Amino acid sequence: xTTDPIIAIxxxxxxxxxxxxxxxxxxxVTEKAGVLNLGVEGMMLIGAVAAFAVGLTTGxxxxxxxxxxxxxxxxxxxxxxxxxxxxxNQVATGLALTLFGVGLSSFAGxxxxxxxxxxxxxxxxxxxxxxxxxxxxxxxxxxxxxGSIVLFFAVQWFLTRxxxxxxxxxxxxxxxxxxxxxxxxxxxxxxAVMFGGACSGxxxxxxxxxxTPMWVESMSSGRGWIALALVVFATWKPLRVLLGAYLFxxxxxxxxYAQGFGLDVPSEFMSMLPYLATIVVLVLICRDGKIILLNQxxxxxxxxxxxx
Length: 308
What we know:
It is found in: Cell inner membrane. The chain crosses the membrane at residues 6-23, 35-56, 62-84, 91-113, 133-159, 187-207, 219-236, 243-263, 269-286. It holds the Pfam family BPD_transp_2. This protein has a single domain, classed as ABC transporter involved in vitamin B12 uptake, BtuC (Orthogonal Bundle). The chain contains 14 helices and no strands. It has helices at residues 4-32, 40-58, 61-85, 90-108, 134-138, 143-161, 163-173, 175-180, 185-211, 223-233, 238-258, 267-271, 273-286, 289-295. The longest helix is centred in the first third of the chain and has 29 residues, at 4-32. The termini are far apart. 43% of the residues are buried.
């Protein structure tokens, strides 16, 4: 057996994992600030349609990605205003945001259904791309894929080394104490929510301009929910988010290659594998409450008002 199929599977795994990395790392920072945003799926869809529409009409994918970031941030600000300022229930508001995003993206994307777009080009690095085995595995992706790795290191550094990252974690653990010593709890939470929205927007943009370069209704196909599960699966650790995303990416592409390898498995079963894996992993983790509570922010999902 040649190494070509193995390389193809590994490359496809990295590509499939990229939107999960963006969405999950964004949600990780949001939850580290004590805010639970279940609207990731909706923000991804809004980002996807914004990137596709702007990229197609202007011919600039860069503008498309900026539009996706702006759309994601705008959606997150709606969520932030309702949950941080008006103190609404975060779970209910997040679910409403997802439903809103699904409906709005379907309506806004009607004129673009089925239209193709020139995808984000892969980089072709001289000499490096031609290295046997390592060349195709490491040096033939597009900028968005490499950006997901940069984002991982940035989030890791931010949460562990920077002043604002430590403040974000403090707000997620004890917002009352942070407020008592004069820290802007609401501002920190707004910033974290907006960062999560921007990352979800990029994740959605990647779906419609790189992974599947066309607009299809509900094209996120539950990836926003998988990203949410990844944060729990990773026990709020960025490195585990990265590894978990590649794990779920591998499960996702398995359905594409299984029948090509002669496995006599119904296609419907292969299609449900990523979601089945999500459920199994969460069940296994949740059996031990200590694992879940190990790194979970103490104030996650709890509203905070300085006057109370």
